[in-house]
Design goal:
This protein has helices at 33-43, 52-60, 63-77, 116-120, 165-180, 214-222, 256-262, 318-325, 335-347, 358-369; strands at 8-14, 17-22, 27-31, 98-104, 107-113, 137-144, 147-152, 155-161, 188-192, 195-199, 202-207, 227-230, 234-237, 242-243, 249-252, 271-275, 279-284, 294-295, 297-305, 312-315, 330-331, 349-355. The chain is of the alpha+beta class. It folds into 3 domains: 8-77, no CATH class; 98-182, no CATH class; 189-369, Rossmann fold, CATH 3.40.50. The strands form 6 sheets. A 6-stranded mixed sheet has the order 12-10-11-19-22-20, sandwiched between helices. It has a 5-stranded mixed sheet with strand order 4-5-6-7-8. A 3-stranded antiparallel sheet has the order 1-2-3. The radius of gyration is 23 Å and the shape is globular. The N and C termini lie far apart (53 Å).
Length: 370
């Protein structure tokens, strides 16, 4: 089978671990040394001849089956991304009877909503930034035939179905982040599904599955001299800096009692119902006056909290860490940004953090950042 030559980047990132990025599909794969050598040999055989390990592997197993797997992997990674078709609409019938103004970094954005339900999708996270100053930009959100539309002034940004709510909220967050920091889409290399915090001129990022305790841990750390840079949405620029996303921390109902002991006014915060799965939450504002606008972040903890879990931090292989991080991350398809992301991976230490005792966990994290 003849394989067309895609544009790609391959880098060794850890012991027996490589990451390969394919430009056409903007896909990243993590492979061991042998598979990496086989893939590169298939893509550019004159530049990357098979090494001894790869030749032994081919002899040990069925040549045809391995070659087919390599070919299929390359074909899959070389498929072009299909751009999402944006449904067309205009603002003729838009009724903006609800709106909010939010101010951060001395920049004011106004968001207009067609109804109160749409406002609840965005507004609670930013109520601590409420402002009555004159806006510099206006975003508009309205609903037509179960499709949510987002406009920036009179320019359509995108449209989403209800089952794409996460993508819609992510796009709003990205637009607000760009506006607050006076940047555009080309200035961002990626966005992580993680929470970033800052202390003593060092930043850490918390990742983990939904319900793993990221937001609860952020709440605890913020009460112990850490400043919140971003909760659950951590944008990184093309220079490799993590930027401040000034939303409040989403604190789930099961953590209310603990949070109320850490923050005197927590019980006074308004409660919001999210869904049957997520239940009720309160939004705890960060102390934005203590937080830098941007910071280098080269320490990542994959968090897991549960009763009876050991309190430990263990450094893990970068490939294992990426298998957790990549599925929930947005990474720009620009080659320069792909290189920025890979360089960040190479310069970053990744840890698995399990805990059941809050005090011990905070002490362990402080030791890592010293």
């Amino acid at each position: 089978m003849k394989i067309s030559s895609p544009v790609f980047i391959s880098e060794k990132i850890d012991l027996d671990t490589h990451i390969i990025w394919f430009e056409k599909s903007n896909k990243y794969i993590v492979v061991n040394d042998v598979i990496n050598n086989m893939l590169l040999n298939k893509l550019t055989p004159t530049k990357y001849p098979l090494d001894g390990k790869s030749i032994k592997t081919l002899k040990k197993h069925s040549n045809e089956s391995i070659q087919d797997e390599i070919n299929n992997l390359i074909l899959d990674c070389n498929k072009a991304i299909k751009s999402k078709e944006v449904k067309k609409n205009d603002l003729k019938n838009f009724n903006s009877e609800h709106y909010t103004k939010i101010c951060f970094n001395d920049r004011v954005a106004k968001i207009e909503y067609e109804n109160k339900n749409l406002k609840q999708l965005i507004d609670p996270k930013f109520s601590h930034l409420s402002s009555d100053k004159k806006e510099e930009v206006t975003f508009k959100v309205f609903l037509v035939d179960k499709t949510i539309f987002l406009f920036k002034e009179d320019l359509i940004i995108g449209s989403w179905q209800f089952n794409e709510m996460h993508e819609f909220q992510g796009k709003v967050s990205m637009e607000l982040t760009s506006f607050f920091h006076n940047k555009n889409d080309q200035d961002w290399s990626c966005v992580f599904h993680g929470s970033t915090l800052f202390k003593d001129n060092k930043s850490i990022m918390l990742t983990g599955e939904s319900g793993s305790g990221k937001s609860s841990l952020s709440t605890l750390l913020m009460a112990n001299d850490f400043s919140l840079i971003a909760d659950d949405f951590s944008p990184m620029s093309s220079e490799g800096l993590h930027y401040n996303f000034p939303s409040a921390i989403s604190v789930k109902e099961g953590f209310y009692q603990s949070a109320s002991k850490l923050y005197n006014n927590f019980n006074d915060l308004k409660e919001y119902y999210i869904s049957d799965i997520k239940g009720n939450v309160k939004y705890l504002p960060p102390n934005i006056n203590k937080t830098p606008l941007s910071s280098v972040c080269n320490i990542v903890f994959n968090v897991k909290f549960a009763q009876n879990l050991p309190n430990e931090i263990v450094e893990v292989n970068k490939g294992k860490a990426l298998n957790n991080i990549l599925p929930d991350s947005w990474i720009s398809k620009n080659k320069k940004h792909a290189r920025c992301f890979i360089n960040w991976v190479k310069s970053t230490k990744f840890y698995d953090l399990t805990y059941s005792n809050n005090s011990i966990m905070i002490e362990m994290i402080n030791k890592i950042i010293k």
